[in-house]
Amino acid sequence: MIDWKDVESDIKASDLSTLLAACDFLTASGLLIDSIQSPSIWMTASCDAGIRNHLAQSSSELGGLLLGELYELPYRTRHGYTHITKITHSIPSSDYKSSPVSLRMQTEIWSKARESIDNGLRVIGWYHSHPNLGAFFSGTDRATQAAFFNMPYSVGIVIDTIRNERRCFFGPHSIEAELKPGSHTISTEVRREK
Prior knowledge:
Helix content is 26%, strand content 29%. It has five helices and ten strands.
């Protein structure tokens, strides 16, 4: 459980045209088609590696914040995720209380996030580990998501570093979604899918 104050979000998504203008035609088309078929949540390889390195440091639960870029879709989707999200940075919590089955991160993490937020990144969500318990959202995780990461775009990631499992959930109802690999970058640094 995360012990933070409930504060209204002032995050506004960037215009989708900004993202599409930075892509070639095939990449832009692929992003739009993908966003219609499934929630479009991406994580860079460097961010993924940083999170995994952080979580591998302890057999107790660890966690932190996810930061990145957010683009609002101008159309409805069947799956209900109305954004294209790119997770580019993580901020590990250094002030916390944890056990093998629980985690309480303190508010210092928001102070750490402030510099990144001031530089244009947005808090997209949170991540934490379930060492050797499996990757799932517990009732407490769902309550945390609903209370503190309750925007439609909010992402929660849980990783079991021992079993090598990872799951991604979005929105206040913790709907499961596929977290797409960072080999397909969707910002100004465009690479083609292999």
